[in-house]
Amino acid sequence: MMPRRENPDRPRAAGAAAAPVVEARAVHKTFGSQTALHAVDLEIARGEALGLLGPNGAGKTTMIRILSTLARPSSGSVRVLGLDPERDAARIRAKIGVVPQEIAIYDGLTARENLYFFGRMQSVAQSSLAARVQWALDVAGLVERADDRVGSFSGGMKRRLNIVASLLHEPELVFLDEPTVGIDPQSRNHVYEMVAGLHATGVTIVYTTHQLGEVERLCDRIVILDKGNEIARGTLLELQRKIPGSGRRGLRVMGDRVVEARAVLTEAGIASEIEEELPGLEQVFLALTGHALRDGRS
Amino acid sequence: MMSSALAVANKDLKLFLRDRTALLLTFALPIVLALIFGAAMGSMGGGQGMGRVPVLVEDLDESAASRALIEELGRSAGIELKPYSGSRARVARGKAVAALLIPSGYGSEIEAGRGPRLVLYRDAARAIEQQVITGSLTPVLMRLSGREIGRAMMKKSMAAFGLDESATAALEKTLADSLAGADSSDGALPAAMGLEIEDVTGTDDPAQKNAGKSHAVAGIAVMMLLFSLTAAGGTIIEEEQQGTLERLRLTPTASRAVLFGKALFIVSVGLLQLIVLFTFGALVFSLPIWDAPFALLCVSLALAAAATGFGLWLSVTCRTRKQLEGLSTLIILVMSALGGSWFPLMITPAWYQKLGHFTLNAWAMDGYHAILWYGKGVDGVLVEIGVLLGIASILTLLALRGWRKRFDITT
After folding, report:
1. Sequence-ordered strand ranges (E) for B282-349
2. Cβ contacts of B249 on chain A, cutoff 8 Å
3. Given CB atoms, is A4 within the 8 Å cutoff of chain B?
């Protein structure tokens, strides 16, 4: 799997015109006197990667819980993969994968034992379970540690296992709730590759995170929630263009002639300021330390 | 340094006072246990101890002397006589503590100045009650038979030796004093009064003839089973907190299957624990576990099911592990004290025994006692098995209801 190139103008996923995978209309959810969602509409096309953003308490988790059959809306309608979550919860659960924010795997079991267990619970056919477990170990980069207890794993290894444990049954729709919290850049990069690989196979993805760079890198479209309201939706470029002063363009200067270029452009009244664009710290770190995983034996 | 120490102490005290579980365990539990022990030992409010011990009486003589004996015994503060025919078998089945048989010819023996014969059938497992019974019988027997016969014999002897009436009175007082001061519980004195004692329960193997050991092993087994199975049920709360339970809920597997799987695991652990404990009891205390292994297995299975229901119900009721530990400790200790896990219910007043049978401990203890002491088979413990399975069903249904309310129904 190769990482996707960052491209804010990335077109929407193929098949967007087909029936949406998720259709939520005027979804309202209250807990006592607290309103978690205010008449939110959400539509996700098949094969799309949607970034669901928002500060803490924005309603992201509530929305995911509703879409994944764990909660029912106070009002409004929801259909997931063409099914009603209230009536067809089991059928929906068989077709979706939910990667929880917390590492929800058993420390006392080995990676392989965890995967076999969750595979059985996800009704993966006995005949294909071994192959699916091997696939998951391979994708997570845990083949060499497959028979070690998870309690001895690093945070990054547990995160990767946490993700693949939700993919054993080949779900059509995957919810990832902050899947990269608390892990090193190598493991985070590996998670990006896993998600991008999944997306490349046509799986629909709903990705929530506070790391905006992850959304830039992985998602086709973004929805931003705040205090239970949808405040923005669109591609990254569409959202960027909504921000005042966002019309600034970059200029690539040949060689090391930045000072000279600044003088010429300023004198001609073309530019008021020239900034040097530098790679982010994460890119520097990865360039210096490499992309290989650091899991001891693997 | 002192001010820092005071600050730490102050902080911990505040935390402690805000922790309701800790407060309950520290103050309420000891008070509750003290009340239970006090009530069990019959000392509460200066009451009448363990109450009158029921004793069957079978009068085969039906003479004036035997009726006088029954009437005199009936006035005893320690025992309560109940006429019964075929009393030996009833004691042997563990249905009565003891029975007094007045053989035919009792009255004529007394009239003839000979020591009459009486038979006391005992359930030796109920040692404390036997002490009360012997202690109640001895003075009456002394009064009605021993004293009269002794006096007659003594007067004859005194006259034969040519002693006068005053010496006879002094000797009579000495005899009465020594009889009053003697220990009547060891059976020697009653035997001297013509009372034959026959233990009609338990096995003849002296190594096994110890109800205390069977009670201790069974009592500890029942109490520890409740603790360990509640802890096992606590894995539900652990899984909820670490997110694996929600992950399981997101699979197509029915959530009832998850609960059933938990129950299966907990019952297995419980059964294994009981097997280990009773095997230990057999090896170390010579408990007769192989006399009725199927009955023992059935009671153990029913007990494990009931304890599993209890553990599951508590686990779905409590929100945190800490809450579960506090509540389960409280309930299990109280149930163990009330239900006879710590001391035999047979030493407690009748009302206490009735109260105790609202706990699963008491039914399990009855079942084990019937098998290990009275040598009963499955047919002899069907009631106990039935009640335990009934408790298991009710608690499991409550657990299922709590589970559905908490985990099944989307909110």
Report:
1. none
2. 70
3. no
From CA A287, how far away is CA B308, in angstroms rounded? 57
Q: At what angle do helices A155-164 and A111-121 cross, to 10 degrees?
A: 30
In angstroms, what separates the C-alpha of B321 from chain A's closest C-alpha? Answer: 18
How many A×B Cβ pairs under 8 Å? 51
**Distance between CA atoms of B341 and B280, rounded to whole angstroms?**
18
d(CA A208, CA A190): 17
**Partner residue opposite A104 with nearest CB, options B247, B253, B410:** B247
Best mutation site among B235, B249, B250 for testing chain A: the one with the most A CBs within 10 Å? B250
User: Whole-angstrom Cα distance, residue B223 to residue B335?
Assistant: 9
Q: Which residues of B touch A91 (CB under 8 A)?
A: 252
* Pair of tokens at residue A268: 């001609």
Contact A86 B410 (CB under 8 A): yes
Q: DSSP letter at B200?
A: -
Residue A155 contacts residue A293 (beta carbons within 8 Å):
no
| B188-233 per-position pLDDT tens digit | 555 666 788 888 776 555 444 556 777 788 888 898 888 888 888 8
> Kindly report the CA angle at A153 between A147 and A157, in degrees rounded to 5?
95
Pick out chain A residues at pLDDT < 70. 1-18, 243-249, 272-290, 294-298
Does the distance separating the beta carbons of A69 and B252 come in below 8 Å?
no
User: What region does B410 belong to: left with phi over 0, alpha with psi -120 to 50, or beta?
Assistant: beta
Residue B260 near chain A (CB below 8 Å): no
Q: What are phi and psi of A119, to 5 degrees?
A: -60, -45
CB proximity B242 to A under 8 Å: yes
Please list every residue in chain A whose beta carbon sits closer than 8 Å to the beta carbon of residue B410: 69-72, 86, 89
B39-86 pLDDT per residue, tens: 665 544 444 445 678 899 999 988 888 888 888 888 887 788 889 888
What angle is formed at CA B309 by the lines to CA B304 and CA B315, rounded to 5 degrees?
Answer: 120
Measured on CA atoms in the order A26, A41, A230, A232, is the torsion positive or negative? negative
Ordered alpha helix ranges (H), chain A? 60-67, 89-93, 111-121, 126-140, 155-164, 185-200, 212-218, 236-242, 258-267, 281-289
Are A71 and B248 inside 8 Å of each other by CB? Answer: no
Question: Which of B242, B251, B411 lies closest to A93 in CB terms?
Answer: B251
Q: Does residue B185 register a pLDDT over 70?
A: no
- Domains, chain B, ordered by start: 45-203 (3.40.1710), 207-406 (no CATH)
∠ CA B65-B69-B70, nearest 5°, is 120
Smallest CA–CA distance from A86 into chain B, residue: B410
Chain A 176-195, CB below 8 Å of chain B: which residues?
Answer: none
Tell me the pLDDT band of B38, cut-offs 50, 70 and 90: low
Distance CA B54, CA B96 (A): 8
Of B335, B330, B338, B227, nearest to B21 (Cα)?
Answer: B330
- How is A197-242 classified by DSSP, letter by letter? HHHHTT-EEEEE-S-HHHHHHH-SEEEEEETTEEEEEE-HHHHHHH
Distance of alpha carbon A183 from alpha carbon A185, whole angstroms: 7
Residues A227 and A58 sit within 8 Å (Cβ to Cβ): yes
Tokens at A84, concatenated: 């009603």
- Per residue in B361-398, pLDDT (tens digit) is 999 999 998 898 888 899 999 999 999 999 999 999 99
